[in-house]
Amino acid sequence: MAAEEISAERHQSNQPTVRKIIHVDMDAFYASVEQRDNPDLRGKPVVVAWTGKRSVVCAASYEARKFGLRSAMPAVTAERMCPHAIFVLPDFTRYKAASQGAREIFHRHTDLIEPLSLDEAYLDVTESKLGLPTATRVAKMIREQIREELNLTASAGVAPNKFLAKIASDWKKPNGLFVIQPHEAQGFLLSLPVGRIPGVGQVTETRMKTIGIATVGDIGAMDISTLEHHFGRYGRRLHELSCGIDHNPVVSNRASKSISAEDTFEIDIPLAETEPLVRKLAEKVWAASRQDARMARTVVLKLKTKEFNTLTRSLTPLVMPTSLAEFTEVALSLRERVELGSGQLFRLVGVGLSNFQEDPDPTWLLFESNASAEVEAVLASND
Fold this sequence. Notes:
Mg(2+) binds at residues 25, 119. By secondary structure, the protein is α+β, with helices and mostly antiparallel strands. It is built from 15 helices and twelve strands.
């Protein structure tokens, strides 16, 4: 073999393998399961939500979304916007069964599966079990199998990394498939609104607009140092994403180390005024924790000051809270351990549960059997 050929062969062997990633997202999952199981609900605006004034929408069918209804909005608001909507109580037993059915279909194609929730997951099909030549073929077969076997629809995004696959799955919802080839990534991202980046909410999007960032292309055109000045370490991550770079692998069997929710205020406020949002976030975290068989032992409060300094306070009580009200009171009490003065302003607050244990004691198991009666709101899935 010629020296030039040997050199070329070595060069090719050192090239990183381009991953083939699929993001599968079930369409309006909870509402779709309800419509599948009850023919009288098909074609009608269905809202899945707990009863109660403080309840939030878990899922809204696409018929309901035409009226502006969406996940995570207050149920009373949804009822006002669409008075003829049909409200259905969540049934997580059936949702989990449908989710497991989809998971079994995924496993026919790959064991590299990273679930994000009951209704979505990343799949690494770089090496397909069935030997299909392209990730697009795999995605098509998965969607067909979900439709035929579960009588549900799913949207899928195919791309060389998780970031792009996530965006792609949302591109042609519902019941759609979109593919971003490696050489198309940067061109595709240039004119994409920054709000389409997973994790960029309304507050961050507004801050970006104040410094002239409206599209992903605008991020790529900005110096990393400038981005870090405005967004901290997240600025470098934003710059990588703007170039279509995401090296995070699909990690299967990843157990959550914590469950948390956080939000940023429109304007910086003193600690004493954070109570309403702490209560709201605690409600979301508590509802989400009810879907985990493990027991969390530690309550966490996170705060970010006006100056972008982050601090956390945590407590591992001898007896864990057994209701939403008790959990909320513990989270609120952690504010008393923040000693920065009444004049300190805060821009973000978060509430979380951590330190999970696989084998809860019998008292916890007894509580778990009655937990559903105490929860009035469910953390909405991003479906």
